[in-house]
Amino acid sequence: MLNLLDSIPNVLLLGAGPSCCSPSTYHALSCPTLSHMDPYFIKIMDEIKSYLQQLMDTKNELTVPLSTSGSGGMEATFVNIVERGDKILVLENGSFSERMIDVAGRLGAEVTALHYPWGEPISVEEAAAQLKKEHYKAVAMVYAETSTGVLNPVEEIGALVKDSDTLLLVDAVPALGGIPIKVDEWGIDICYSGSQKCLSCPPGLAPITVSPKAIEVIKNRKTKVPNWYLDMNMIMGYWGGGQSRVYHHTAPVNMIYGLYQALYNIFEEGVDQVFARHMAAHHYLIEQIGQIGWELLVKDERYRLPVVNALKVPAGIDAAAFRSRLLNDYQIEVGGGYGSLDGKVIRIGLMGYNAQKYNVDRVIAAMKEIIAG
Ligand SMILES: Cc1ncc(COP(=O)(O)O)c(C=O)c1O
Hints:
Blueprint: E1 12-13, H1 23-29, H2 39-56, E2 62-66, H3 70-81, E3 87-92, H4 95-106, E4 110-115, H5 124-133, E5 138-142, E6 144-145, E7 150-151, H6 154-161, E8 167-171, E9 190-192, E10 206-210, H7 212-219, H8 232-239, H9 253-269, H10 271-291, E11 295-296, E12 308-312, H11 319-330, E13 332-333, E14 345-349, H12 357-372
Parallel strand pairs: 1-13, 3-4, 3-5, 5-8, 8-9
Antiparallel strand pairs: 2-10, 6-7, 9-10, 11-12, 12-14
Helix pairs in contact: 1-9, 2-9, 5-6, 10-12, 11-12
The chain binds pyridoxal-5'-phosphate (PLP).
């Protein structure tokens, strides 16, 4: 009988995520399944919390992987904070901050959005002026905009709201494990990520951290969190109660093993070394694309996201056909552009296990052959 799993192609994932996992992480996924309430599994959960706290640079007790993808992390963030009529400010410069506007709007928030050209960072000055003009329950932004390759100034926005009752909600989906993120120092109240990018674990988990200030807001809601599955009050009962945990839902046990191993790998290599490896791969890519006459979409290097690089496609090259050739002839996946960037950029992710100069060499060699025809 044909088993489709026997013929899964061996693709080098250099797109906007997922990235490839290390063999040790693939092995971890196949360890024997324990009960989600087993004391040994709880030890693994506790260790994951501690690793995530260190990687996010936070003391937040509520720092856990949610059983959902990055979008579920976004949903959890807004559904726990927003009540009908709440004023939320979203700083939009890409498709994921655009998604935030939709998510908050569906919950009945009164959303104000400041829009910026895709490929450019959000403006701190304009955000500051808007925050002076009006009081918001929360300001939301994307730290690492995967859709455009922009790194937004979270620390500066954090400084604007740190000493107020306005919460700072940050999407760090492709950032976690690849570049520094300082949740406490930057004054972030909720920060979520995804397992499949720089953590190099398969998709399906959304690490999230919630500050005591945000927990107060959640506990003092006038209405119940309108989503049972993502209600942080209940998730706290499962992840936070030591050995006396309360069942909420059956955790994806083997995925949690995978995340444990992926985090173990980062700490074994050394967090600073891991960040330096991502940076080195990014700089090497810039050097190499320069040699074939290509350039990055983001002009100002201070706002370049090192882990997802949006490359402008030169005139005369069909971006979709180019990506198809990379996949079909060279088994390399790279990302395309979204919305207004469709056909104009390709995105090369150098995330986690894949952030290596030899992967840059492989994709550049393939690109050169395709360009030469
Ligand atoms: C910045 C950002 N936010 C949110 C998401 C959504 O994550 P997921 O696709 O895991 O639901 C992504 C995924 O690419 C992302 O890059």
